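User: C-alpha cells in, sequence out, please.
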C-alpha cells in the first residue's frame, strides 16, 4: 500500500510574516488621461490592474495603453508597481521601470495618464448638530436616581450618527450610559466625563464592540444620565483616535471580508508549517486560539476578542502564507 510522501516541515519566519501587519492603504490620484481627475483607494491584499481591458480595476481606454498594462500590489508592507510586459512601458518619476517600490508622493505614468501616490487619509468626522449640546447640558443638571428615569437624548442613528453624538458627549464631558438597539441586539457604551470606558454588544466587549457599534447606520439610541458604572474599563486610549480608526475600518473591513473564504468555510492549520510560538505577537495568538476552537471563518471572527478588522487581516496573512488552509480537515 502506497503512502503519501511526507513533506518536510517549514519553519515560518514570523519576522517576514509580521511585515504585513500594520500595512497602510494608499490613495492614487489620477491627474491626467482618460477619466481624470479621479481618486482610487488601494488596500492591502488588493491587486489593482491598470489597462485598456474593461476587466481592469482602473480602465484607461486609449491606444498607447496595453490591455493589461501594469499592476499595483503590496510586497510585504510596501506598495509596488509592476509593469505587465506592456508595449509602451510604465514610467516612475520619469524613468521606465519593470518593477519598483512606491513611496509617498511617487508619480508614475501609464499612457497619457499620470498618477500620484499618497498615504491614505482618515475620513473627517462630522461635527455634532447645533442645539444638541445645549440639550445635553440641561439634562446633566437634572437630579434623577434611576437610569430608566434619566433619559437625556434619544433618537435614530440614521438622523444622528454615533461619531457625532460621541463628539458632543466628549465636548460636554458628560457621564452616562448610551444604549444602542439594532436588529434585536443591544449595545452599551459606559461613558465617564466624555470618555468611553466600556463597550459591549452581545458577547463582544471593548474595542471590538465599540467599532461594531460605530459602523451602524441604522438603529435607535438613548443616553441615560448619570447611568451605571460597570466598575471596570475595556476601552482605553484617545477617543478621537478611536473614532477615526473605526471609520477607517468600516470601509476596509468590507474589502477584507470579500477576500476571505465564505463565512461557513472551515479553516485548519497546515501541519507542514512550524511556528515559533514565543515569537508570535498577541493578536495572532488570539486569532489562532479562536481558530482552534471554532474552525469556520464566521465563528472565528465572531468569537475572537480583538476587533473584526484585525481578525480578518490576520486570517488573510495566515492564508496567504499557507499557515492556515481552507476546506481541509
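Assistant: Sequence out:
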Amino acid at each position: 500500500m502506497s503512502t503519501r510522501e511526507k513533506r518536510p516541515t517549514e519553519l515560518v519566519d514570523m519576522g517576514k510574516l509580521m511585515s504585513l501587519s500594520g500595512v497602510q492603504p494608499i490613495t492614487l490620484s489620477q491627474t491626467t488621461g482618460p477619466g481624470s481627475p479621479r481618486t482610487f483607494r488601494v488596500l492591502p491584499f488588493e491587486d489593482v490592474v491598470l489597462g485598456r481591458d474593461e476587466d481592469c480595476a482602473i480602465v484607461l481606454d486609449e491606444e498607447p495603453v496595453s490591455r493589461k498594462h501594469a499592476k499595483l500590489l503590496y510586497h510585504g508592507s510596501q506598495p509596488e508597481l509592476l509593469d505587465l510586459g506592456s508595449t509602451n512601458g510604465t514610467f516612475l518619476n520619469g524613468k521606465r521601470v519593470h518593477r519598483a517600490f512606491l513611496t509617498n508622493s511617487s508619480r508614475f505614468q501609464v499612457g497619457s495618464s499620470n498618477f500620484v501616490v499618497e498615504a491614505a487619509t482618515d475620513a473627517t468626522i462630522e461635527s455634532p448638530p447645533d442645539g444638541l449640546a445645549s440639550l445635553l447640558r440641561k439634562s446633566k443638571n437634572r437630579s434623577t436616581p434611576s437610569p430608566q428615569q434619566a433619559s437625556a437624548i434619544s433618537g435614530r442613528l440614521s438622523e444622528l450618527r454615533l461619531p457625532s453624538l460621541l463628539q458632543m458627549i466628549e465636548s460636554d464631558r458628560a457621564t452616562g450610559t448610551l444604549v444602542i438597539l439594532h436588529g434585536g441586539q443591544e449595545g452599551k457604551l459606559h461613558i465617564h466625563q466624555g470618555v468611553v470606558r466600556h463597550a459591549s454588544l452581545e458577547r463582544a466587549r471593548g474595542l471590538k464592540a465599540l467599532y461594531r457599534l460605530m459602523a451602524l447606520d441604522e438603529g435607535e439610541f438613548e443616553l441615560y444620565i448619570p447611568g451605571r458604572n460597570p466598575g471596570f474599563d475595556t476601552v482605553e486610549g484617545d477617543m478621537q483616535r478611536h473614532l477615526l480608526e473605526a471609520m477607517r475600518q468600516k470601509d476596509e473591513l468590507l474589502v477584507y471580508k470579500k477576500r476571505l473564504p465564505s463565512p461557513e468555510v472551515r479553516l485548519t492549520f497546515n501541519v507542514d508549517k512550524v511556528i515559533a510560538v514565543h515569537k508570535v505577537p498577541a493578536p495572532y495568538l488570539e486569532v489562532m486560539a479562536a481558530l482552534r476552537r471554532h474552525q469556520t471563518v464566521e465563528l472565528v471572527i465572531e468569537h475572537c476578542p480583538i476587533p473584526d478588522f484585525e481578525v480578518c487581516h490576520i486570517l488573510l496573512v495566515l492564508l496567504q502564507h499557507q499557515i492556515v488552509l481552507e476546506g481541509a480537515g
